[in-house]
Amino acid sequence: MALQQIDQFSAKLRPETRASVYDGSKKGHEKRTSVLFDHYPDPDHLRRLAGNIKQHVVENLDTLLPAAAAALERNGVKVHWASTAEEANAAVLAIMRARNATKMVKAKTMVSEETHLADYLGKNGVECVETDLGEFIIQIDGDHPSHIVKPIIHKNRRDIATSFEKNGLGAYNDDPQTITRRARAHLRKKYLEADVGLTGANFVTTDTGRLVLVTNEGNSRFCLAATPCHIAMVGIEKLLPRETDLGLYLNLLARSGTGQQLTVYTEFISGPRSATQPDGPEEMHVIFVDNGRTDALASDCREILRCIRCGACLNVCPVYRQASGHAYRSVYPGPVGAVLSPLLAGERFPELADLPKASSLCGACHEVCPVNIPIPDLLLRLRNRGKQEGSKAAAAGTPPMGAWSLLASQPFVWKTSLLAGNSLNYIPKSLIPVPPMQTWLRDRTLPAWRGGAFRQWLANRPTPPAAK
Amino acid sequence: MARQPAHPARRQIKPASAPSFLLLAPMPSPRETLLARVTSALAPLPKRAPLPNWDNELVIMRQARGPVDAWTFFAERLKAVNGTPLASAAALIATLTQGGWKHGYCDPALWDELRPTFEAAGGFNVETTFDRSRIDEYQFGITAATAGVAETGTLVLSDRDTSRRLAALSPWVHVAVLRRAQIHIDVPAAIAALPQDPNVVWCTGPSKTADVEGILIEGVHGPGIQIALLLE
Ligand code: SF4
């Protein structure tokens, strides 16, 4: 019987990659937990509150989106709308063409990964340089991010040093400090030459029309200090109702994502530079991107749209730690990806319908989520949907349950099989002619058969005192 | 919340070149298309989740309590994120001298205040204009802060007060000049007082990354040394 695709991928993972992913995510989780519980008496209360506010946003997007757009426009921002990835990319290109712009520096944004913006711009004659150190390394490697906060969690310093050498960024040197300094020098020129800086947004305040960007390296700040035009690609779910809500979310996001109180740079951008400021964009555009989000909104899994992309659920997930991010075959890996990726895939849902099964339903993702998303519940709903839609990807690795249901629904057959079960203790397990059983047994051992013991106990149990 | 009037349609097809049936039934604008999808996705919901109110007290850190004065608290928290609090121009001169950082930029509005100390020390080359074609020559940049956040050791910069965004970012050393009265005690207080400014940036320590094997490296694209200089 074929294994699930994620298991197949995981089985072939290089041991170094597995070690990098495991160590990186484990450290991230431990730091998150100690900081959050050290700083607050009741972080769970904060998570529930943050979840409730975001649920309000999700369920009121029809009024909040126009309000946010109006606030941005009042601040001098040009607002664009894109229902699909193609429209989003085309909107970016149109803005650039209108300015005769050919060079872009880009900060980290997951939406642009969804739309494959860099490839698209490259094909249309625009140079698009990733400036986040991790994303830059991904770009020169022709690789894909494997974590939403730490894109190169799957690489070690030797991998990085090799690709720097290959790409003409100096002789092989795997000292992280040297790697960072070389990127600093290389990217500095790129910022100063660029015509456009592109960012995402972590939050958009609906009442005041501010984009909030949360970064550590200072690359998005540099994009917005050196270039004359700022384009932000923003998923439609990024809104917060009130500016004051930032006090809650900023405190939760950095602690959940990287175990910091605040990231180094928290930028509040509400428009083109002021008249007295010599540096920065004279023009600012926001592109609100749907790209499957309204499908998620219409589904019974709309809670996933609360997600603030902190990565905490990846770090804690036993499946992610073993399988790595690329095993999820989509932009969003880990528990959040197992829900979000199939939903965003639209008609291609059945192709990714196996992802919701890549979970032991242990519930750790729900416990750490700063917006309290009940990920295990959503996974179950999507498993159901995968089954309903007859997805082949979802069915892989699942034993057929028909025989089981016959067995379990006929008392006589059941009792007979319990007796037969005793024979399991006397024959070699490798002789059992049930293929799913053999697959299962490859990595596990069966305990000794004790079938029937419960029924015996039940029949002979002493009468409980209360029933006398 | 009131609905906004419909946005002027941005059509990709110019009416003049469009086939006549499109003129009769105009294509919905991208805005209309997207919002219509949102509306229909939400239509089946019997009721919408309410917006909870909450109290700022909730997100104030446990450690943020105490009778210490704002600057002392701020300085302690700034050190915790590897920033450098300095309480006098003389201390700044000492730090710059020790690092060998002799060439830099200073906001012209601050130069009068700092000039005597720099001139007395001697050996510094301080420009009050910033030339972006010589960006790597500036070892330090001195600009004015808009505020500070004590709880997190954060410096608040804004377009209004930062003379050059680039000068506060590209030199290895950034010095933000802070006044005692500008210090907010915690994050909610600083959010409540966010300046009306198109570009507000909170800087919490030097620029950093942990992308390579989780190892902390400072000074990625921005300053490797972040100084808060208290001037009375
Ligand atoms: S689902 Fe929750 S824990 Fe996972 S990335 Fe999103 S906000 Fe973070």
Question: Which topology of the domain at 70-230 in chain B does CATH recognise?
Answer: Rossmann fold
**Quaternary state of the chains:** heterodimer
CATH superfamily membership of the domain at 70-230 in chain B: NagB/RpiA/CoA transferase-like
Q: Approximately how much beta-strand content do the residues of chain A carry?
A: 5-15%
CATH-defined architecture of the domain at 42-291 in chain A: 3-Layer(aba) Sandwich
Number of strands of chain A: 10
Describe what you observe in this structure.
The complex is a heterodimer of chains A (468) and B (232). Chain A is an alpha/beta fold and 468 residues long. Among the domains of chain A are: 42-291, NagB/RpiA/CoA transferase-like (Rossmann fold); 404-460, no CATH class. Chain A has 24 helices and 10 strands. Chain A has helices at residues 5-11, 15-39, 43-59, 61-74, 85-98, 110-115, 117-123, 133-141, 157-166, 176-193, 219-226, 246-258, 293-298, 312-316, 318-323, 334-344, 349-352, 364-368, 375-388, 392-395, 402-409, 411-421, 435-443, 453-460; strands at 78-82, 103-106, 127-130, 196-199, 203-205, 211-215, 229-235, 239-240, 265-269, 283-289. The longest helix of chain A has 25 residues, at 15-39. In chain A, 53% of the residues are buried. The model of chain A has no long low-confidence stretch (mean pLDDT 92). Chain B has a domain at 70-230: Rossmann fold, CATH 3.40.50. Chain B contains 6 helices and 12 strands. At the A-B interface, helix 2, helix 3, helix 4, strand 1 and helix 8 of A face helix 2, helix 6, strand 9 and strand 10 of B. Iron/sulfur cluster binds next to helix 14 of chain A.
Give the arrangement of secondary structure elements.
The complex is a heterodimer of chains A (468) and B (232).
Chain A: H1 5-11, H2 15-39, H3 43-59, H4 61-74, E1 78-82, H5 85-98, E2 103-106, H6 110-115, H7 117-123, E3 127-130, H8 133-141, H9 157-166, H10 176-193, E4 196-199, E5 203-205, E6 211-215, H11 219-226, E7 229-235, E8 239-240, H12 246-258, E9 265-269, E10 283-289, H13 293-298, H14 312-316, H15 318-323, H16 334-344, H17 349-352, H18 364-368, H19 375-388, H20 392-395, H21 402-409, H22 411-421, H23 435-443, H24 453-460
Chain B: H1 20-24, H2 30-42, H3 70-80, E1 84-86, H4 89-99, E2 103-106, H5 108-121, E3 125-127, E4 140-144, E5 147-149, E6 154-158, E7 173-178, E8 183-184, H6 187-192, E9 199-203, E10 208-209, E11 217-218, E12 225-230
Parallel strand pairs in B: 1-12, 2-3, 2-4, 4-7, 5-8, 7-12
Antiparallel strand pairs in B: 5-6, 6-9, 10-11
The structure holds iron/sulfur cluster.
